[in-house]
Amino acid sequence: MPTVATDFRELGPDFVRNPYPVYARLRAEGPVHRVRITDGQEIWLVVGHEACRAALTDPRITRDFRKVHGALEKLGGGAADSPALTHMLLRDPPDHTRLRRLVAREFSPRRIAALAPRVQEVTDGLLDVMLAAPDRRADLVGALAFPLPMTVICELLGVPELDRSSFRAWSNEIVGTATGPAREAAFDAMVRYLDELIEGRRAAPGDDLLSALIHTVDEGGDRLGGDELIGMAVLLLIAGHETTVNLIGNGLRALFAHPGQLELLRSDPDGLMDGAIEEMLRYDGPVETATPRWTTEDVQIGTTTVPAGDIVLVALADADHDQARFAEPDRFDIRRDARGHIAFGHGLHYCLGAPLARLEGRIAFRTLLERCPDLAPDADEAGLAWVSGMLMRGVRTLPVRW
Question: The whole model's pTM is what?
């Protein structure tokens, strides 16, 4: 086994707050490195825009854990037969193709665009509550960044409002650093809940997405099976809110740290908002590394051979800070042409919900700029608590004042 190039656990909180210099140093040395990540595992980390894009489309680097003996054990355990793992993000073609085809029609551009009035209504309601605070202070994550996408995705799927706090707790366990019993317990609880919800929708369909998925049949008569419905619902619930939470939180932190860019965006939100969202995604995106992959055979990356059966993480965060792709990548510039970033992934696993996250981000920032002209940070950046693990990148709270 190769020597570990970097033990991320030894880098302390500075790495969590700003991993980009560490990634840049590794990138200067080569496109792949054996590292020990924050939960203690040793994995292969791919860095650099070109190498990351290549790894995300290499059929020898799979997301389907069933193809690699002991794959889940390497991640800290988990039940391979759990319905929660029966979804398209953990499948290769042709299984992935089939599952994505069955759900993609529910995420068409027209259907996403039709959600704009409801997203605006939810945003306005949340800001009404936030701005009523007598001390003119709030946690922006708790007041807006989390409840906005959670409300939207739960309404889409038909999850009752009273149950949404449970989903937040389960999601925190699943995407964080929890392993073994804690992670399995979160998956099991979510599966049990969704199984009951799906059975209820079979008996009494509504106009929600879950009901549509239950009854969707393609031209050949194919439809999602019971476990596949649960797995798809788990994926949509988790991915459907985690990315937007951190897009809003990280984007606002970037604007606070660059007041000239904030004022520029305020001066022309109609002309600059779309580009600003893309730059937020590139500069400090919501996903630090793509979900784990495994090599199904020996794979050469650069001059290094990654052995079959090993875990590979693709550093999306570094890919979008590669000077070979973006000039002055550490500069935050909302007028930059940020197209080509891979904040939502690349290839066949490109995030299906990316258009919804962009819609929610545009509406959230536009409304914040209009209704909170004096919005400012209310805590030092160094004191913020960060989401654990290397999957999602974001802060747990973001104190603001106005």
Answer: 0.92
